[in-house]
Amino acid sequence: MVEMEGSKPIYTQIAEWLENQILNGHFQPHDKVHSQYTLADMFNINPATAAKGLNMLYDEQVLYNKRGLGKFVTDDAVSTIREKRKNDTLTRMLRDVVTEATHLRIDDEELMDMLKHMIDEQRGEKA
Description:
Blueprint: H1 10-23, H2 36-43, H3 47-59, E1 63-66, E2 70-73, H4 77-103, H5 108-122
Antiparallel strand pairs: 1-2
Helix pairs in contact: 1-3, 2-3
């Protein structure tokens, strides 16, 4: 979903929307994705903004260009998107945990023990 008044830039939302379309199987490897003009019409945005979202996915090697034909989904787009999101989400969450632990003056050993305990719980192992 693209929210024109959300906190994320619209081109980022366009890129995430296309990523979700790829993850959900709407676009398969080597399928042509919507052009910047189609995306602009769909979301009532400037074509340059849509192009910026498409170029973001091109830079991340989720899409590739065929000269004169448009942008297409790469072979490993799904794994690229999953890996990027895993790294982005985990990094952001761990940064928040470390920041909060620092504010609470929890030392490294106690934090690592807490993390190990949670991992063991999630995996059904006894701590």
